[in-house]
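Student: I would love a firmer grasp of how sequence relates to backbone shape in proteins. I am handing you a single protein, as its sequence and its fold in token form. I am told such tokens are a discrete way to write the fold. I hope you can help me see how the letters and the tokens relate. Take your time, and here it is.
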Amino acid sequence: MKRKLSNDKAIRVLSSARQEFARWGFGGGRVDRIVAAAGVNRQLLFYYFQSKRGLFHAVLRQAAVELEQSLAAGAVRHGTPLERLRAALTGQFDYLARHPDLVSLLTYGTRIEAGVFAPAIKRLVVLLAEGQGLGQVRGDIDPHVAAAQALVLMLGYLRLEPMIAASAPPLTGDAPALRARWMRAAVDLYVAGVRAG
């Protein structure tokens, strides 16, 4: 499929689909709007992606690759596992905050293809497991569950940010400042929660 997806028309379809699914979710996304925005016909969409679900999964796979590339580029290679975990969490939150379409895609409640975001989660799992091996991370936590919880925490805040900002005191209601404070507090809370005694 990668060979086909280098085609300009397929790339336009993916871009249009990402916007459509981010706005309406899988159930509300319409193939007719996607092909109109991409300037192609339905047959071409189905040639490249076989189905609406195939297109949705292609959009998710593309987003997952972009997330992992961003995290790999910004990865801290030195320091303790907890220091690298803090940097990875901050990078992941920052990436998601800059890509609200991805947050929407991940929070629409559609069943996501197993493993599509595994590389981003695995990055956290490896750091947690390494920390456990060195006695820096609690031994009673499951690294896979803890890594997924970090992603859920970030997505939950970013999806609910307007409601959280509306309930903040007037002096702290500035969305960028509130987001930065929340991110630091969430990362601090997470790292403190996994840190060994």
Summary: The longest helix spans residues 143-167. The chain has nine helices and no strands.
